[in-house]
Amino acid sequence: LHFVDEISRREYLTSPHWTHVFIWKHALERFVSGYLDKVVRDCENTKGEIKPHLAIHYYKQFGFSCEKHKGFESFITFMESVPKFEGHFAQQTPLCSVDKFPYTDFIGADENFSLKLEMLSAKLGVHNPKQKKKTSLHKTKSK
Fold first, then answer.
1. Which value, to the nearest 10 degrees, does the dihedral of the CA atoms of residues 84, 87, 93, 96 take?
2. Among 13, 105, 118, 123, which is least packed by CB within 10 angstroms?
3. Contact indicator for 33, 142 with CB cutoff of 8 Å
4. In terms of DSSP H, where are the helices of 81-112?
5. Secondary structure E strands in 40-137
6. pLDDT in tens, 83-134
7. Which region holds residue 34: left if phi is over 0, alpha if psi is between -120 and 50, else beta?
């Protein structure tokens, strides 16, 4: 939908001819995943310079530094003092406009995600290809 004009996007999102699925990730899992990827990994790879394209660069304006805030507890304490979050740590529900668009189904991205996709595929009468692995590696190298 990113590459579609605004009028077409609105039509797709409200049309009953399309299947609308809201997939969500548990907030704590999302936070920890973001921390591992956007803080731990990026701090390890910066070599002292936090480049503007990194998520942690946004937090420099609030006093973030890899030396002080790379540890999980210190990062949580730091985030409690931040007035506004950038996209990786911001609340996602408002961005999805859950109250504006009809959804066919809500699916939580958890350990039963593949099974839930199979059930949704069966409900819609479409083929769901089987995954070869039960888990996949994320950029943070966590399963």
1. 130
2. 123
3. yes
4. 93-96
5. 105-108
6. 999 888 988 777 777 777 776 677 777 778 888 888 888 888 888 777 665 5
7. alpha
CA distance linking residue 22 with residue 30, whole number of Å: 16
**Closest to 39 in 3D by CA, of 70, 64, 65, 67:** 70
CB of 37 within 8 A of CB of 140? Answer: yes
DSSP E strand stretches across the chain? 21-24, 105-108
**Rg over CA atoms, the chain:** 19
- Digit-coded pLDDT (tens) for 11-29: 887 887 877 777 778 888 8
8-state DSSP, 53: T
Residues 6+ apart with CB under 8 A from 89: 31, 34, 38, 55, 79
Q: Is 100 exposed, middle or buried (0-12, 13-18, 19+ CB in 10 A)?
A: exposed
Show the tokens assigned to 12.
């797709």
Inter-residue contact 86 to 58 (CB < 8 Å): yes
Judged by DSSP in three states, 125 sits in coil
